[in-house]
Amino acid sequence: MNKTWFKRKLGNGHGEEVTRSWLVCSTSKKSAFCICCILYSRSDHQSSLEQESGFNQWKARERISVHENVKNHRECFIQWKEVEINLAENKGVIDAELQSQIEKEKQKWRDILPRILHCIKFLAIQNLALRGHGESFELGDDSNMGNFLGLLKLLPIFDPVMKEHLTRVESHPGSTSYLSPGVQNEFIHMMASTVCQSLLRSIS
Ligand SMILES: [Zn+2]
């Protein structure tokens, strides 16, 4: 491989060069590849630049230049650049859908976590124990699941957000719920730390 492979003279009389962005190399295979043709080419007559083995032959500069001007390569290059522009403008179908899912997931937890936090805060203010004999919603009605889970089980009667969340937790055991004893303790420590800092600020 040679550094000169990756540059192309514009031929505008000023000796200007542009980088061949489509040409990528593998140091382990000691070969060069055409990324856009590898991704998009449907041609039966693939050059070595489009194949798994790559391209490492002599007279490479001329061969690369020939490949660059082949119709199939030009079409693949345009397709590659169009995808790049679409993704950059957030118009890409895959990207937009993924982004939308991430935003929905973020909003879901922004809705759920304050409800859980307020339940823990209420029980802490009332000096009530959070946990009972079990940590499962599947316990029978006469079993003591504790004040925290009991209170949470009350919310879905009026609150669609918690109704959906608890239905999911019950139907998908092991899924993320933010209801475990570890999470309860984490919330309690965070609130204790906030109270401590507030007290320290007020006396300093
Ligand atoms: Zn190509």
TrEMBL record:
It comes from the Eukaryota. PANTHER family: DUF4371 DOMAIN-CONTAINING PROTEIN, PTHR45749. This is Uncharacterized protein LOC106464101. It comes from Limulus polyphemus (Atlantic horseshoe crab). The gene is LOC106464101.
